[in-house]
Amino acid sequence: MTQSRTEENKRRAAQAALAEVRQGAILGVGTGSTVNCFIDALIQHPGLVRHAVSSSEASTARLGAAGIEVVDLNQVSGLDLYIDGADEADPGRRLIKGGGGALTREKIVAAAARRFVCIVDESKLVPVLGRFPLPVEVIPMARNLVARELRSRGGRPVWRQGFVTDNGNQILDVHDLTISDPLRLEADLNQLVGVVTVGLFAARPADVLLIGSDRGVQKR
Ligand code: 5RP
Asked: Do 49 and 154 have their domain in common?
């Protein structure tokens, strides 16, 4: 798959997500290149969204530039809908996220949303999660402590050097994990001291996947 075809498929999925947004919605907005396509598509529909809650400083800036008011999650009682991309999606709509490093706020916004629509190009589909290294956000002083725990579970954590999350933390990208039971692994890694967020979205998977491909958009 060439880069430009992948980009076109992201755009297709993002465009299809517009149909999921009800007039006047309070909308959660994720992070990444697919979401950027979605924000760009939203610009063509002024007034469709009442407010947005953003999952990153980058998306906040893009939404602001598009004239969409961004509010703090604490200012709203809940979100009608959350639109976000993913690094991988399995047949159960469970996801790996955090390639862009925004996993913590993404998980919070997803938890607050009544409905989570995930927009991906077809290259993100996998039968079993784990080809993409699993991002884990850690408190900086606990990085090596958490890395040792991840190694003892068969993973190969690599520190994303030079990257600091919007929350001031660091990321370990964990290679070589066998994610046969995503729900269990998410719960297991969540309880490690020093872990802020695991980029597995299994306890709160997407409700709908919109998959862009050369053949159009499939809803799953
Ligand atoms: C950011 C994410 C993104 O959703 C994920 O990395 C997909 O990005 P893209 O749409 O650029 O392929 O989880 O933290």
From this structure: no
CATH number of the domain bearing residue 167: 3.30.70.260
The tens-digit pLDDT sequence of the chain (220 residues) is 788 999 999 999 999 999 999 999 999 999 999 999 999 999 999 999 999 999 999 999 999 999 999 999 999 999 999 999 999 999 999 999 999 999 999 999 999 999 999 999 999 999 999 999 999 999 999 999 999 999 999 999 999 999 999 999 999 999 999 899 999 999 999 999 999 999 999 999 999 999 999 999 999 9
Instruction: Give per-residue burial for 37-62: e unless 16+ CB within 10 Å, then b.
Output: bbbebbeeeeeebbbbbbbbebbbeb
- Looking at residue 89, which CATH number applies to its domain? 3.40.50.1360
Task: Report d(CA 113, CA 136) in Å as an integer.
Answer: 22
Whether the model pTM is above 0.90 = yes
Does residue 143 contact residue 118 with C-beta atoms inside 8 Å?
Answer: no
Q: Is 133 in the pocket of ligand 1 (CB under 6 A)?
A: no
CA of 87 to the centre of ligand 1 (A): 6
User: Whose CA is closest to atom 8 on ligand 1?
Assistant: 32
Would residue 106 show up in a list of annotated catalytic residues for this protein?
A: yes
Q: Determine the atom of ligand 1 nearest the C-alpha atom of 33.
A: 11
Instruction: Tell me which of 37, 54, 62, 87 to substitute to probe ligand 1's pocket, judged by most ligand atoms within 8 Å of the beta carbon.
Output: 87
Amino acid letter at 151?
A: R
CA–centroid distance, 48 to ligand 1, in Å, is: 24
